[in-house]
Amino acid sequence: MRISQLSAESGVPIPTIKYYLREGLLPQGEQTSATRAEYGPAHLRRLRLIRALLEVGRVPVAAIRRVIEAVEDERTDVHTMLGTAHYALASPPEPHSAGDEEWTRARDDVDRLIAGLGWRVGPFAPGRDELAQTLVTLERLGMPATDADLLVYARTAMDLARDHEMGKIPFDGPRDVAVETLVICTVMYGKALDVFRRLAHESESARILEA
């Protein structure tokens, strides 16, 4: 297909496609003449992945490039490739000083909790810092989280990951489709979970207060 067809089928404007081509995020098409190139299903898959990272995951272009590199490098195993995408979705924690005892204590608590759960999580996983930042914020708000509080959420998260979410990822399919699925499921089902929690809060408030 020509670039105009690629744009029509993907919903991505031609100038944006050309930008992705210049930035190396989208592989070049097969040159059939000096002014014409042909594109195929692989280009459509890649555009879907870029859109998922950019529009759903709000991942910056520099981080998208790292994800694309992991997708294209067949020497990178699937677990590491998916981890690269997961790490790109992480929100950076607030800056803290090296001697910040509150932060250090929260990070130690997170590491201890993850170890106690027996989870296989990399030592530099940004989720560790994200969770530590959450604990610091809860402490400052006067609502410190106990291990019992956190374990409820941790076990619920593992149940969702093991029994529902990870089963949606086509591990044996095209690498870019696996990453696209991971990003969409992580972000969109995360939003759905948050919405259901708020709806449940409203329902329980009505029940408790007999509203």
From TrEMBL:
Alphabetized UniProt keyword annotations: DNA-binding
Keyword match DNA-binding: yes
GO molecular function term, any single one: DNA binding
Stored InterPro entries: DNA-bd_dom_put_sf, MerR-type_HTH_dom, MerR_fam
Pfam family, one: MerR_1
Gene3D superfamilies per record: 1.10.1660.10
Classification via PROSITE patterns: HTH_MERR_2
Chain coiled-coil ranges: none
Protein name (Swiss-Prot/TrEMBL): Transcriptional regulator
Organism: Planotetraspora silvatica
Domain HTH merR-type: 1-70
